[in-house]
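Appendix C reproduces, verbatim, an entry submitted by the partner laboratory led by Prof. M.T., so that reviewers can inspect both the input and the predicted structure.
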Amino acid sequence: MKKLSGFDLAMIITFAVVGVLGGGAWWYLSTKLDDAKQAVGAASQSFQQYSSKEVYLPTAANEKILKDDSALLATTIDPVIKAKLLSPDDKILTAGRQDPVAWKSDLDARVAKLNQEAKPHGVAVEPNFYYGFSRYLNANPNDEKTAVLTKQLLGIEQIATIMINAPVKGIGTVRRTYEEDESSGSPGSSSRASMDKDYLGGHSYEGDGGVYIEYPFEIEFEATTEALRKVINDLLQSPYVFVVRSLTIQNSNPLSPKISSLDQLAASPDSSVADASPGAVAASGRSNKGPQFLFGGETLKIKLRIDMIEWKGAEAAAANSGGGAGKNNRKTTPAPKANAAAAGGNNASSGASK
């Protein structure tokens, strides 16, 4: 038998050690792989369980995080709102209770001034138009309600002034929520709206924590496209915070011009037909009227749903933080659904925000 050399012995020992270590490593890693597969399976099962339904964890810690985040957000936004949106000219911030007789006298003066300003601007309004306050033509309000009525009056006065200065062609109806009536959003209010043209169903809405209150109005008026553009722009530039909720438009001309009439409508004056008889003009196919507007010169019948925001700020939110949401979170009736623009531009609806 051949004697093994030292090298052969070393190689045999090395392969034996490697085999033992490799087998041990394989056993260790395979065990860990099985454990990992089981962990992945458990995680997948948990994911399927919780992703298939909503899970709420209303713990004290989570509630505290939400309150802290809300307070931080309000504190951060409040200075920006005051600096960028709220103006010293926003008089609703300082509106308070008045003597009912004094309030009625102020209402009469403001309404008369608006009607007087409408005339030279060519804005048509009904005789003795009262801008949503017709119920006080011959009556005084309750003194406890004069504060909120003053805020509504200031908002409507601002909107009407903007429309008069645009100028629009006419203001037909101004509706407001009857904040002085606590039950104006109660059942039966729809029948009331059919009898009272100034009445807008619902109530103002107070945001969570009393940070803001929004007062809704609805105005129907007629205007050209240029006047409407100025109205919207001036509302956004107003010292008051207005949010346009919906804008419904009906064109006075429901039909687009016929293609066969475009040449005659758009023709420039021609010296040969400028003094010709109507028959000669028609025969020539030319117009002696000069360039004509094909689109954009019509009268628009508009219904505007707009909210005026009374911003109270983070201080109010902090003061009311222990009381939950606003005093009653009163909501207005939903705004009318927007009408899709017709092919001929007859109806359109849009929204904007400030």
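Residues 6-51 form the longest helix (46 residues). Additional entries are available on request from the coordinating office.
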